[in-house]
Write a structure and sequence with these properties.
The protein is an alpha+beta fold and 108 residues long. The chain is built from four helices and two strands. Strands 1-2 form a two-stranded antiparallel ribbon. β1 and β2 form a beta hairpin. α2 packs parallel to α4. The radius of gyration is 21 Å and the shape is flat.
Length: 108
């Protein structure tokens, strides 16, 4: 079990390692795939999609890559459902010029 900082460091190391591999050999499918997977886990969906698209240029139709696009879609949806919206409720007091606001978080 890792805490958030340790997990982030692991994913960051995976991204850095993959960058080195991609710089050495742009046709390294595994490097693009691993970097995309790390970025997905860090919620960097746009960058992950770029990496997956690059991987698809190397091996079009690769089912593992296509599944990762589906993972991104599901993670984005889950993220939307968990986002909190800020609701502002204002209620006037006895003095018309003074009011107070209560802020609360509500799930969408």
């Amino acid at each position: 079990f890792f805490n958030d900082t340790a997990t982030t460091e692991i994913y960051t190391e995976q991204i850095v390692g993959s960058v080195r591999c991609v710089q050495e050999t742009a046709s390294n499918l595994k490097a693009w795939y691993r970097r995309a997977a790390a970025r997905i886990n860090m919620n960097q969906f746009e960058d992950a999609e770029k990496d997956l698209n690059q991987a698809l240029t190397i091996e079009p139709g690769n089912q593992d890559i296509i599944k990762e696009f589906e993972t991104i879609k599901k993670r984005r949806q889950a993220q939307k459902e968990q986002q909190l919206s800020l609701i502002h409720i204002s209620e006037p007091t006895r003095l018309l010029s003074i009011s107070y606001a209560v802020f609360c978080l509500k799930k969408k």
